Amino acid sequence: MIGPDLVRARKRNGVLALAKESVEARARARTLAEEVLLIIATHVDQTRVVLEGALSELAMAPQERKLAMALKKLALDDSAFDGNPTLDAPALRREVFSRAVVAREALALGARFERATVIAEVAARLGVTPDALESGLYSDLRSAQRLRGAPIYDADGLLARHARAEVQAVLLCSVRVVVEVRCATADQYRALFHKLKFRQLLFEMSSLESGGYRIEIDGPYSLFESVTKYGLELALLLPALEACDSVKLSADLRWGKKREQLRFAVDLTRAELSEPAPARDDVQGLLDGFRQGAHWRAEPAREVLDLPGIGLCVPDLCFTHQVTGEQVLCEVLGFWNRAAVWRRIELVEKGLAHKIVFVVSARLRVSEEMLDGAESAALYVYKGSINQKALERKLEELVAPAPARRSKCTK
Amino acid sequence: MNVARDGTGIEVLFAAGTLELRGVLPPGIKLTPHAAWDARSRCFRAPALAYADLVRFLHREGVAFEDRARAYVELERGLSVSREPRPFQSEALRAWREAKGRGVVVLPTGAGKSHVAVLAIDDKRRSTLVVAPTLDLVRQWYDLLRTSFACDVGVVGGGTYDVQPLTVTTYDSACLHMDHLGARFGLVVFDECHHLPGPSYALSAELCLAPFRLGLSATPERSDGQDAKLVRLVGPTVYRKDIVELSGPYLAEYETVRVEVDLSAEERAEYELERAIYLDFVRSQGIRMGSARGWNDFIMRAARSGPGQRAMRAYRRQRELSLGAQAKLEHLERLLEAHRTEKVLIFTQDNATAYSISRRFLVPIITHQTKIKERSEILERFADGRYRAIATSKVLNEGVDVPDASVAIVISGSGSVREHVQRLGRILRRKGDKFATLYELVSRKTGEVFTSERRREHAAYGGGGA
């Protein structure tokens, strides 16, 4: 990651925008990236201080300074260094400094401290040359580390890394982020919400007319003060956002030393959408199996079901009754952990309004009775593999008239 | 959950540095302004800092509640080593108690601020977190608490994560971990609490529910005026004594000696050349370096052009020449020989100079790069006399206890009054009839003379400031 001080951005009318590169500037950036990588590649086995010295000689125009420094920082971060294991530097220093104290205390009146004598005496005692002692004395410092491996990417890889790092550096200064996100698969949404939860971020979500969701993201304390405390978490969320198909991100910033209030917006939608990831085997099996079904048609679900303050779930499939058009969602939890099942049951008990079947393996040791009588949800527990007929029965039960169903919801 | 007869009652939970309040409130009771409704999680939420006020409010209003936030415990035992406090330490403790266990105690370095904290921990007997600015201080607090309370002491920071009812951490680690540690301590001691009001460090106080808070500092005032925030984050200043009030009976007598040295002919020529390049650029751009925005203007404009970048290099070089003048190192050699039987601390403005002094004079060095084990060993050898001098840049500025040191040599430093007073404080801890001397080496006819004048504006140096 790079710091906000290395971001090439412009402020205008309260908006921070990343600098746009002309074709020439892009070509020049590529040349700089190539040069940085070349210098690093030709300094394997040299010390860090020598390498950094060589990198500081990189010729650049004043306006390229931030870019060059950022490229150097990222490439150095991705290089492998190690210390000098042959000498125990702290032990050498102990010997030398202790001997120097004795030598200084023994000075006759008017005599001068003889550094070379101390070094020679200690070197002789340790059985090394004075030069070896001198070079080993501070060999454990960061500046003395040796380069063992250059980054494994090429110039384009470094520039891609830099593009992400600039957005992340801006997000470090963010107090709140809003994303408009659209994913092709439930797994993409799940990965995003899992990451939000893992980073202890809070969010408010609403559906977009065009499909997808608008998610406002910040942290618990943001309610009282706009703080950049969650900036790192928001920056680390970026790879999960980039994995979605379409993301428009905007952020409120406190920028620079003066913490100026600015807005930032970036479109992370991929120019070329990759092939949608194939559905998991169990989900794909249901899609295929219900293709020939007489009563129910299955298609990938597009909804995220959120119950603020309680939790959310991301269904995999949406079943539509061929005759009545009624819809029932389905989340295939398979062999996930039991806690995930309890969380779904809690969602239902706390008022999840959609009709949904949770498909769970018997290995998780939960009973279908847990949701017996729930108005809108059912558990289907399967042994071995998912039985299409049994699932269909669950779907039928959920769309059956209410009197046919029990009314108690127990855990 | 505690529920009243009318079915009302709430739970108070600690969640990521905030308090969540869930449940049913009695009619007519409003949680605002103590807490705000959080639609994201459908509950009321308050900063953890508001815990004491909130709990008092709930009690006062007779709201049935279950406190599931508080996770701190009462200490099983108090002090195992009884040491008679000095009169001003007892007065400080009394003042803090009268302020309901929230406030800042201001005492000069070497006067025994940490003993006031030990007395406060013993007084409240609640799980306590001590927050200190450096790993050296963490180590020192660890030793002090372990010997004072004869129990295990936890450490969070420097690669260690061990939480105990008595725990020590750094400000950086407190910021990182208060989200999940903030409910586990009833008392928090902020050592060198003038660091606390910075925007990120302040959050470590906001995200912690400790009802009792003690701030310690010799110099709580900040040039940015943010010290006013300490009242909310810790409490008001409840007790204050200055160096001049305690010098003699409780602190060592001292003198400060400013030594002006000349640049060599080559250094002078290069200095004047580089300074001219720097000043020409400043003048050509109409930058007023004396103004509040001067430095920022210079940085900004220097980055925009070739001549600007050259001017920045020139600025750095002329500064380097004045701060690290050859004559200073020659004078340092004389001082090290003159004080070779005493314990000497050598302070520099930057690590590179400290390392070059260590290499040239073969004296041990402590910087942020020094590993804890070696740091402890150096301080131990310094304490028992096997080492006579330590070179350092800034990490020994604050708090680290080097009781026998009687000579400080400031090779270079910033214009900060606080830094200069703290460096003096390092040699003032009283021991027998110790007399302390601080030497400040300044390159004559350079910008450093002005820097030196700025940092000496304190009563301790006979200057005007407090």
Strand and helix order of chain A: EEHHHEHHHEHEHEEHHEEHEEEEEHEEH
- Total strand segments of chain B: 19
SS-based class of chain B? alpha/beta
Quaternary structure classification: heterodimer
Q: CATH fold name of the domain at 281-404 in chain A, please?
A: Trna Endonuclease, Chain: A, domain 1
How many domains is the backbone of chain B divided into?
4
Largest interface: A-B, 42 and 47 residues
**Percent in helix of chain A:** 25-40%
Q: Give the CATH architecture of the domain at 281-404 in chain A.
A: 3-Layer(aba) Sandwich
CATH class of the largest domain in chain B: Alpha Beta
Distance between the termini of chain B: 53 Å
Strand order of the largest sheet of chain B: 9-8-10-7-11-12-6-13
Estimate the helix proportion of chain B, in percent.
Answer: 25-40%
Q: What structural class do the secondary elements of chain A suggest? A: alpha+beta
> Roughly what is the average pLDDT of chain A, rounded to an integer?
87
Shape of chain B: globular
Q: Judging by the overall fold, what is the CATH architecture of the largest domain in chain B?
A: 3-Layer(aba) Sandwich
Query: What is the H level of CATH, i.e. the homologous superfamily of the largest domain in chain B?
Result: P-loop containing nucleotide triphosphate hydrolases
How would you sum up this structure, described in words?
- The complex is a heterodimer of chains A (411) and B (466).
- Chain A has 411 residues and is an alpha+beta fold.
- In chain A, α1 packs across α7 (155-171) and α3 packs across α7.
- Chain A contains 13 helices and 16 strands.
- In chain A, 37% of the residues lie in helices and 22% in strands.
- Among the domains of chain A are: 89-139; 172-274, Alpha-Beta Plaits (2-Layer Sandwich); 281-404, Trna Endonuclease, Chain: A, domain 1, CATH 3.40.1350.
- Chain B has 466 residues and is an alpha/beta fold.
- Chain B has 4 domains: 9-67, MutS, DNA mismatch repair protein, domain I (3-Layer(aba) Sandwich), CATH 3.40.1170.30; 87-246, P-loop containing nucleotide triphosphate hydrolases (Rossmann fold), CATH 3.40.50.300; 253-261 and 325-460, Rossmann fold, CATH 3.40.50; 265-323, no CATH class.
- Chain A binds chain B through residues 62-63, 65, 90, 93-94, 96-101, 104-105, 107, 112-113, 115, 118-119, 137-138, 141-142, 200, 202-204, 219-221, 223-225, 227-229, 257, 259, 308-310, and chain B through 15-18, 36, 38-43, 45, 47, 179, 199-200, 203, 206-207, 296, 303-306, 308-309, 333, 336-337, 340-341, 355, 359-364, 369, 371, 373-374, 377, 381, 386-388.
